Amino acid sequence: MGCLRALLCIIFPPLAVLDKGCGSALLVLALTVCGWVPGVIGAILICNKE
Known about the structure:
Layout: H1 3-11, H2 13-16, H3 22-34, H4 36-48
Helix pairs in contact: 1-4, 3-4
């Protein structure tokens, strides 16, 4: 994960995982709606997967 992707995970989590698939984006969007911190954590975890 690069610096730009990490910054994108912090600023707007659903956009950071958009290339990982629709399910990941919807999951992170739901977490972000529930709270910003869970959305950021979810986005970072999904972006770190290989």
